[in-house]
Amino acid sequence: MKANIKSKPTIFMIFGGTGDLAERKLIPALYHLFLDSYMPKEFAIIGLGRTDYNDDSFKKLLLGGINKFSRSGKAEKDKWEDFSKHITYLKSDVNNEADYKKMSSLIDGFEKEWSETPIIIHYLAVAPNFFPIIASNLAKVKLADDCDRTRIVIEKPFGHDLQSAKELNVLLKGIFAENQIYRIDHYLGKETVQNMLAFRFANALFEPIWNRNYIEHVQISVTEDIGVEDRGGYYDGSGALRDMVQNHILQVLCLVAMEPPVNFDAEEIRNRKVDVLRAMRQFGPDEIRFNTVRGQYSEGWVKGEKVEGYRDEEGVDPESNTETFAALKFFIDNWRWQNVPFYVRTGKRMHQKASIISIQFKDVPHLIFPNQSSESWQQNRLIISIQPEMSIRLQVQAKRPGLDMTLNPVDMVFNYDGTYENETPEAYETLLLDAMKGDQTLFMRGDQVETAWDLIMPVLESWESKKSISFPNYSADSWGPETAEALIAKDGFHWFTMPIKKADKK
Ligand code: NAD
After folding, report:
1. Is 40 in the pocket of ligand 1 (CB under 6 A)?
2. Is the CB of 21 under 6 A from ligand 1?
3. Which helix (H) or strand (E) holds 235?
4. Peptide bond into 472 cis (omega under 30)
5. Where does this protein hold NADP(+) (predicted)?
6. What is the pLDDT of residue 1?
7. Catalytic-residue membership of 122
8. Cis omega (within 30 of 0) for bond into 388
9. In angstroms, what is the span from residue 414 Cα to ligand 1's centroid?
């Protein structure tokens, strides 16, 4: 979180203000920034949508969202009243040019009232097919051209493939400068993900061993226990590779693998991340065959309840070829990482909801202990858990208490919950505050998005062109298809899983 320095007066234009994202994430995040005194004295939130609300009924909708989704529970009456004074609703259709004039006059009104010219943040919380029309219409009413004060926040997905991502970049860059475009990947706002930078570059201990001489392999695993829920229609045109790997997982991988930046400037950090993506080995037909696995969940039982298979979910094609699970083995062809495999996997309806990075170090060069003393031998492992718990664990061997020399792996644990008393902010709080302050470090640059698409395109094209004959190939509440175990087992490793604590069980 940034230092508590007040931003300039700010206007949030939330396109899709009545939608799920606004209700569940954006408004609760802005409310917390207000409670924690991060909002400037003068700010306005303008909700835009087609539904017939007035200011009062719109505020009622948002209050319901806060009461349901906010990390601090129900809003206190007086605090909500103070906050909600800043909220306005404007019924508008993104396709209607005249409505942008109304937006413009609303903004003019605030400008006249306020002491300083405000920052204007256009937040596009709408379906991606509306991004081009909104950007073009904003340009027509001159709500886009001031590089210093207007910004546009684009939600994921950024493109459906390399071609569409390039087209969207061309369109946006024709209207906005790169420093006005905030491509959001909310994963980058998570505390533990941000902590990767602190952990690696604020400690002298790890950087000297952070390379192929000491690290044997890296795993990044982002698993969900839910299915597609009510997003079946959307998900069936997307799949695990697009939904998780192209964005969140590759972003996390970049933080693990990047070279030390010279300073903490947004451009410097983003350059180092693009360097990683550019050094990643391209997938040819052999790599796709041997280094990738796709899966789709079948029906099954989750905690005693029968759940549907993917192809039976609402909105999903009964013969769907869309993957709900993906596992890939990547290599980064540079001096630091040559021949160190990076295994990534993601899937829906898996046994556990967890996001974990596991870095396994090479074995000791020579074992001096007798075999019987080290039956549960485990090479050193650094485990960074993003969820369910936010922690960093270093697994080391230790002597078990007793009269004989028996070795056991034990964890040295840094857990956010036990270490810090402050409540952890939601990722959207961090990212919205950064957008207000004009800090793009945690947002994706255009070339970064395109390079990530470029990397996964051969896999996407191959999977789409060849219908899987084994789908569905893993049952609900499992760890994915057996072939995913084989992908890593053939190199002598296994997927790391966190023991499920009682509190994590639902
Ligand atoms: P939603 O369907 O709940 O909301 C869409 C909003 O767009 C509504 O407010 C609707 O009124 C508005 N809208 C639709 N057509 C319009 C028009 N012609 N003119 C004006 N407004 C119009 O969708 P959502 O879940 O809020 O998602 C919005 C975007 O955010 C999508 O791109 C989605 O991929 C992305 N996203 C959502 C989440 C989430 O948690 N919901 C998470 C990450 C990304």
Report:
1. no
2. yes
3. helix 232-236
4. yes
5. 50, 93-94, 156
6. 43
7. no
8. yes
9. 37
353 known member of a binding site: yes
Q: Based on the number of CB atoms within 10 Å of its own CB, is 81 exposed (0-12), middle (13-18) or buried (19 or more)?
A: exposed
Collapse the DSSP code of 501 into the 3-class scheme (helix H, G, I; strand E, B; otherwise coil) and give the result.
coil
Strand partners, 326: 294, 346
**CB atoms near residue 382 (< 10 Å):** 20
Alpha helices by DSSP H, 38-190: 55-69, 77-84, 97-113, 131-140, 162-175
Annotated catalytic residue: which of 248, 351, 366, 494? 248
Q: 215-223 and 354-361: which strand pairing?
A: antiparallel
Q: Residue 76, annotated ligand binder?
A: no
**For residue 500, is pLDDT > 70?**
no
Query: What is the Cα–Cα distance from 241 to 330, expressed in whole angstroms?
Result: 14
481 close to ligand 1 (CB < 6 Angstrom):
no
Query: Which structural domains are found in the chain, ordered by start?
Result: 10-155 (3.40.50.720), 188-489 (3.30.360.10)
The CB of 272 under 6 Å from ligand 1? The reply is no
- Pocket test of ligand 1: the residue of 126, 238, 242 to mutate, having most ligand atoms within 8 Å of its CB, is 126
Q: Give the rounded percent of residues in the chain with a pLDDT score beyond 70.
A: 97
CB 92 within 8 A of CB 133: no
**pTM of the predicted structure, to 2 decimals:** 0.94
